[in-house]
Amino acid sequence: MSKDINSSGHPVLSQIIKLINRDKVNELATTTKVNRYVKSFDAFTHLVVMIYAALSGAKSIRQVVEGFEANVTRLNHLGIAYLVRRSTLSDANKKRTSQFFGDVYKALYERYSSFLSDSKSSKALQKGLYILDSTTISLFSQILKGVGRTPKNSEKKGGIKAHTLLEASCVLPSFVDYSAAAIHDHSRMSSILSLPSGSFAAFDMGYVDYWMWKQFTDHDIFFVTRQKDKMSFTVIENITCSSDDDIVSDQKISVVYRHTTERELTEEEMKHRRGRKPKKRPTVKQTETGTLVLRRVVKKTDDKKGTIAFITNNFSLSASEICEIYRRRWGIECLFKRLKQNFPLKYFLGDSVNAIEIQIWSVMIAYLLTSVISREAKDKMSFSNLVCAIRLTMFSYIDIVAMVVDPLRAWRDLKEAQRKQALAYNPKYIQLSLFDDL
């Protein structure tokens, strides 16, 4: 094997795996107890296999196993000493909890989020801005309840929904949770309450919940969202508009919220209850109502033919800045597009909820590690091309970062070596071919 500037003592997959702290992975495996009763196929080996499956685009367990069988002499570089079998991988995807893979992603996020953050955004509006949205992945069968009506001529496919909270200054989701596609988006709005005080959250109209908006205000968390057409509100005051011609109106409004909770009867209430004492303590529903003061900003659309209204609980920023914050919500749509284009989840390696969640978490981990490689290479190559390069050179002994920074450097070094060799035999040598100058 010739040595050049792009050569490496480890395969590309090994260079990616080395970005993971194995001691941390073993610690998480001990915490979640996923290595109990395991002889060979431990949690770290399972993680490496699933990362390979995500990066290679394997469509079946057979393809994953054959990929490792074809490169069995390189397994020691990956830090594993077990050649996975189909039945072993299938059982592990079914029985090993997906929580372990989620914990690995969270540990990697904590380690690399600051490295992947855009330093240029520190002075922009997206500092401290988080975006909440969800994306639905169709399944081949009704493993999880799908969304929408059942087609007349066929059975409705299942679906899993990934609820994602993205930090705008970073390309990585800070929170990911999974549910059946039929579960409504606003069921995961409580994740915003864990954000630091003073943060901004942007989300679309699927997250209209006045009670949760009150919780955000009480926790000093600001939000920006779209107004629904049938939203009922009362105008309290018209705020003076800025000089921006696109701003139609800026108003202070109030909305009425209602929140119903269910609680068990107290001991005092049980004393006044007639009849036989039930085996299970009965419950009672109680409703809380109140008024929430918000801000409504109306802006012209880009084509100037219509208007669009935004709702927020922030009164300090200008109307234009409120509109700009919501415009940056598009960053999470770009994330979903990048994930689905480069790691298409069309073929699953298991038919259980746990196996599907493991595969999605593995895609998220692979996306994170690939983003680290891209940032180390200073984004010299588009993300799609980088994923393609990794997929084609998975077990090749090249320095992936050096190759991405300057793909033709190895070629130039090779042609220079050929020139020197030719000159050694023929001092009158001028040029080997018409393409020596490449």
From TrEMBL:
The keyword Coiled coil does not apply. Keywords: DNA recombination, DNA-binding, Transposition. Residues 266-286 are annotated as: Disordered. Residues 9-80 form the DUF4372 domain. Residues 272-283 have a biased composition (Basic residues). GO terms for molecular function: DNA binding; transposase activity. Residues 127-369 form the Transposase IS4-like domain. It holds the Pfam family DUF4372. InterPro entries: DUF4372 (IPR025399), RNaseH-like_sf (IPR012337), Transpos_IS4 (IPR047952), Transposase_11 (IPR002559). One of its GO terms (biological process) is DNA transposition. Belongs to the transposase 11 family. This is IS4 family transposase. It comes from Prevotella lacticifex. The lineage of its organism: Bacteria, Pseudomonadati, Bacteroidota, Bacteroidia, Bacteroidales. The gene is TRm22.
